[in-house]
Amino acid sequence: MVVTNSLLSDFNEKYKFLLNNITDVIIETELNGIFTYISPQVRDQFGYKPEKVIGENFLEFIHTDDISIVKKALMDITKFKKIFYVECRVKHKAGHYIPVSVQGNFVEVQDTLRLVGTLRDISEKKIAIQNHKNIERQLKTSEIKYRTIFEQTVDSIILIDSINGEIVDFNEQMHKTLGYSREEFEKLRIPDFDLMENEEDYKAHLEKVVNIGSDSFETKYRTKTGEIKDILVKAKAIEIEDKIFLHSIIRDITKKRQAKKQTDEINTLKSELLSRTSHELKTPLIAIRGFTDLLLELHRDKYDDETISILDEIKYGTERLEAIINKLLETSLLESGSILLNTKKEDLSFLIKFCARNLRGLAETRNQFMHLNIYDKIILDFDKEKIHEVISHLIINALKFTPPYGEIKIQTNFRDDFVVVSVRDNGIGFTKEEKKRIFKKFGKIERYGQGWNIGIEGTGMGLYTSRKIIELHRGEIWVESSGRNKGSKFSFTLPLKRE
């Protein structure tokens, strides 16, 4: 075959093109590691000009910790005549090191053995490997954590195959709760101990949870000994290796149910006792008040001023005691659910103005200022007498615990489908602990001896009954206060539409 200069020139051009455009760095060194050639890519990848590298020793660019690895690879290629491959770190001109793979072989160039090979930047590969290791480590850690929680939690946990309904995994608490050994429980299906679901219901429920994603419900389980337990189940559909399972947390609420039942019975007895006692107290109280009124009305001119003052005190005391008894009776009825609201369309704006007007005299005796910022004509369904009681109580509280020349602001706003009524003052305010107590029964915050008594006494039931009344209207009531001497803001909501 005849090779012309033209063909040789063409071949050289193609060879040069390949060398200049390949991403790897092409290297050629003598047996002692001196560079005799390095491709232009070394500038882009390592920051060196090719002509500055030629004549230098390859080992001078290797990280000191990797030199022994490279030398061993060179010895192996010489000894075993195999392809040279090693991974090491090569120094960039800027001073940092880049992980590379070096691959090559000995070839004869002009009767001289040379090492010809490539340098490839494997930074991304190293990062990918490290990321993979990190993920594997995290997965292993997560698995250990999950298994620890799975076995140590006080709740029972069960994993169910959503296709066939088989129990595929469960923790120790699960089989212990029902009195089975692990081996016995492995052979069971949910309908074997769930009294609320037969096999057909069970399959339908599985499908429902898979479709909606999760479910929370109460049921009853039968133990191995026949005992019936109240159970709360929280089930969630999860995907594991392209299969859908139901992960259920199962809690025995039998004792909680029994405790609630006992508490309800005690509260019922307490409410009945409160109601009966209040009625029994009211009967003689009416007689005392009636005779006192009679004495004052028919025989006032026969008594001296001291006697009349005593009778007035008796009358005031009976009125005060009667108000307390009525409040206790109302509380008893609210607790028992015996109160029925007399709701009809009313103007809430008019009612707020009416309450404020009735209490303006009290505010004036304290040199307090009352401001109203309310919408006109707020028409909605509510029990006028009950809401009058709530608004009046909130305003009275604001007056009681705001110093002279203080301000009480009453306003209305709209939020979603509710009207919001707020009573704000700049008085004594509430601490964090007090805010937790005030809506509870007998949650009155005592202010005696603190300079806040203005002749308006309370039972500690006002805010409690207010909460009950607002809740009966399907609303909410709450308090906001930044702390002592920073004022407070009581707000409640009422729905704009009747359900």
UniProtKB/TrEMBL annotation:
Membrane topology type: Multi-pass membrane protein
Record's catalysed reaction(s): ATP + protein L-histidine = ADP + protein N-phospho-L-histidine
GO molecular-function terms, A-Z: ATP binding; phosphorelay response regulator activity; phosphorelay sensor kinase activity; protein kinase activator activity
Domain PAS: 11-81, 142-185
EC identifiers of the protein: 2.7.13.3
Pfam families listed in its UniProt record: HATPase_c (PF02518), HisKA (PF00512), PAS_3 (PF08447), PAS_9 (PF13426)
Keyword Transmembrane helix recorded: yes
Assigned keywords, A-Z: ATP-binding, Kinase, Membrane, Nucleotide-binding, Phosphoprotein, Transferase, Transmembrane, Transmembrane helix, Two-component regulatory system
Gene3D superfamilies for this protein: 1.10.287.130, Histidine kinase-like ATPase, C-terminal domain, PAS domain
GO cellular component terms attached to this protein's record: membrane
SMART domains: HATPase_c, HisKA, PAC, PAS
GO biological process: osmosensory signaling via phosphorelay pathway
Localization per record: Membrane
InterPro entries noted in UniProt: BphY/WalK/GraS-like, HATPase_C_sf, HATPase_dom, His_kinase_dom, HisK_dim/P_dom, HisK_dim/P_sf, PAC, PAS
Positions of the Histidine kinase domain: 276-498
Protein name: histidine kinase
